[in-house]
Design goal:
8-stranded mixed beta sheet, 15 strands, globular, 5-stranded mixed beta sheet, alpha+beta
Length: about 260
C-alpha cells in the first residue's frame, strides 16, 4: 500500500472523528441558522468543524489542496486534495434529526482514492481507501447481491429535488418498479447501499463535497457510482449509486429508455 495514501487516510479518519465530536457539542441545541445564497443552511458548527479540518489536514500536509463547502478552495502542489463537507445533512442537524455526518474525501491527481464519513450521534465511522476495502468501524462492509429490481430498496433525499429538475415522472417510475422506497437522504443512503442494507441511492442536486468522500466507500464495498449518463463524475448534480447488479437497468429508467 502506498505510504503517502495510507498516512493521509489515517489522518483523515482521526480528523473526521475530531470534527464530528466538535459539531456534536452543538447538536440538538439552540443555534442561529444562516442561509447561504443557494438557500442551504449554515451554522457555527459547520464553520468550526471545517476550520478544524483545514488546520489539522493542512497542518500535516501543507502542500495539499483543500476544498471545503464553507471556506472555498486552496490550491496545492502535491497532487493531493482534501474535499470536505463538515456537516453533511445540515438541515437534519438544525432540526434535531441525528442523521448527519462529517465527510472527508481524499483525491489524488483528480481521482477519489479515500473517504471517511463519521456519524457522531450513531457512533459510527464509515471509511475506505482504494485497494483496502470499505469498513464501518472495524467491520468490513459489502454491497448486497440483490439482482432483481422488484426486490430492491431505493433511497433518496427529497422528491422536491426531482420535481425541480423536471425528473419527477422518471423517479416515480423507478419507485414503482422497486420493492421499497425510503427517504434516507444525504450521506446516509450512500452508506446504507455500501453496507448492503439497500440497493440504490438516487440523487439530484448534489455538489462535489457531498459525494467525494462517499464514492470510494461505495466502490470499495463492491458497488458502482455514476451520474445518470453512467460516467463516474463527482461534479454532476445527478448521482446514481447501486450494488452494481442493477445499475445499467436503473440508468435506462432514469434516461427514459426503459
Amino acid at each position: 500500500m502506498n505510504s503517502a495514501w495510507r498516512s493521509r487516510y489515517e489522518a483523515a479518519v482521526t480528523a473526521a472523528q475530531q470534527a464530528g465530536q466538535l459539531a456534536l457539542r452543538y447538536f440538538d441545541s439552540t443555534l442561529t441558522v444562516e442561509w447561504k445564497q443557494d438557500q442551504s443552511p449554515v451554522t457555527i458548527a459547520d464553520r468550526e468543524a471545517e476550520s478544524l479540518l483545514h488546520a489539522t489536514l493542512l497542518g500535516a500536509f501543507p502542500e495539499d489542496g483543500f476544498l471545503g463547502e464553507e471556506h472555498g478552495e486552496k490550491l496545492g502542489t502535491s497532487g493531493y486534495r482534501w474535499i470536505i463537507d463538515p456537516i453533511d445533512g445540515t438541515r437534519n442537524f438544525v432540526r434535531g434529526i441525528p442523521l448527519w455526518a462529517t465527510l472527508v474525501g481524499l483525491e489524488y491527481q483528480g481521482e477519489q482514492i479515500g473517504g471517511v464519513a463519521d456519524v457522531p450521534v450513531l457512533r459510527q465511522t464509515y471509511r475506505a481507501l482504494r485497494g483496502d476495502g470499505a469498513y464501518r468501524g472495524e467491520r468490513r462492509i459489502r454491497v448486497s447481491d440483490v439482482a432483481q429490481l422488484d426486490e430492491a430498496i431505493v433511497f433518496y433525499s427529497s422528491l422536491s429535488w426531482f420535481v425541480k429538475a423536471g425528473c419527477r415522472d422518471l423517479f416515480l417510475e423507478l419507485s414503482l418498479r422497486t420493492q421499497r422506497q425510503r427517504g434516507f437522504g444525504d450521506f446516509y443512503g450512500f452508506v446504507l447501499v455500501a453496507q448492503g442494507s439497500g440497493e440504490l441511492m438516487v440523487e439530484h442536486g448534489v455538489h462535489i463535497w457531498d459525494v467525494a468522500a462517499l464514492k470510494p466507500i461505495i466502490e470499495e464495498a463492491g458497488g458502482r457510482f455514476s451520474d445518470w449518463d453512467g460516467k463516474p463524475d463527482v461534479y454532476r448534480p445527478d448521482v446514481l449509486v447501486s450494488n452494481g447488479r442493477l445499475h445499467d437497468e436503473v440508468l435506462g429508467i432514469l434516461q427514459g429508455r426503459k
